């Protein structure tokens, strides 16, 4: 059994900080990402930098903290969008999920999946379903005893039954895969 739902929203820090952290953590192990994130924060005396701080920071110092050229370009693009007002982080609480996703995917390095994770785990939006996520697809495969994971389109249709709580459904599907993986390792 998977037990009670422990789906939780991460509300500490700012929305900009959450997105900055998400970009830094992309495609890295948790330990490596935490080290780089810590070094970047140290450049700002441990205080979360603003978009203007990121844009004004010395590129060589950010690179020396461990950011690749590509990641640096992503966090600078994020900062530029915030500064230009095309990414309206101060308005997200009153915006629709679709409008937030549209704004976020304008930023290099933030795709649909990252936008969905922001909606689910930062803003606590209850009806977001990342149909392209392999873990969610594998969870449905296990739950429904399918021969293969459903396609994202098939999954989007299947997930309609869980609306308006598809975020919680996704959380349980991830836990189902985690539980199956632990059982397989035993």
From the structure above, extract its key features.
mainly alpha, Endonuclease III, domain 1, single chain, 186 residues, 0% strand, 2 domains
Could you explain how this protein is built, in words?
The chain has 2 domains: 15-122, Orthogonal Bundle (Endonuclease III, domain 1); 134-185, no CATH class. The longest helix is centred in the C-terminal third of the chain and has 20 residues, at 166-185. Helix 8 (134-143) crosses helix 10. The protein is globular and about 55 Å long. It has helices spanning 15-25, 30-43, 51-56, 59-64, 69-84, 97-104, 112-122, 134-143, 152-159, 166-185. The chain contains 10 helices and no strands. 59% of the residues lie in helices and 0% in strands. It starts with 14 loop residues before the first helix and ends with a helix. With 186 residues, it is mainly α.
């Amino acid at each position: 059994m998977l037990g009670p739902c422990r789906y939780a929203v991460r509300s500490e820090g700012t929305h900009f900080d959450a997105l900055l952290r998400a970009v830094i953590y992309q495609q890295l192990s948790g330990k490596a990402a935490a080290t780089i994130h810590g070094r970047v924060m140290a450049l700002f005396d441990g205080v979360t930098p603003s978009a203007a701080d990121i844009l004004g920071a010395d590129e060589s110092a950010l690179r020396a903290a461990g950011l690749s050229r590509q990641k640096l370009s992503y966090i600078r693009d994020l900062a530029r969008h915030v500064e230009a007002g095309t990414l309206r982080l101060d308005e997200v609480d009153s915006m629709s999920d679709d409008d937030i996703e549209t704004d976020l995917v304008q930023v290099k390095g933030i795709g649909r999946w990252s936008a969905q994770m922001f909606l689910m785990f930062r803003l606590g939006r209850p009806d977001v379903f990342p149909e392209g996520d392999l873990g969610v697809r594998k969870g449905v495969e296990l739950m429904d005893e399918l021969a293969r994971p459903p396609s994202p389109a098939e999954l989007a249709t299947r997930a309609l039954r869980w609306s308006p709580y598809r975020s919680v459904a996704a959380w349980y599907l991830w836990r189902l895969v985690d539980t199956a993986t632990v059982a397989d390792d035993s």
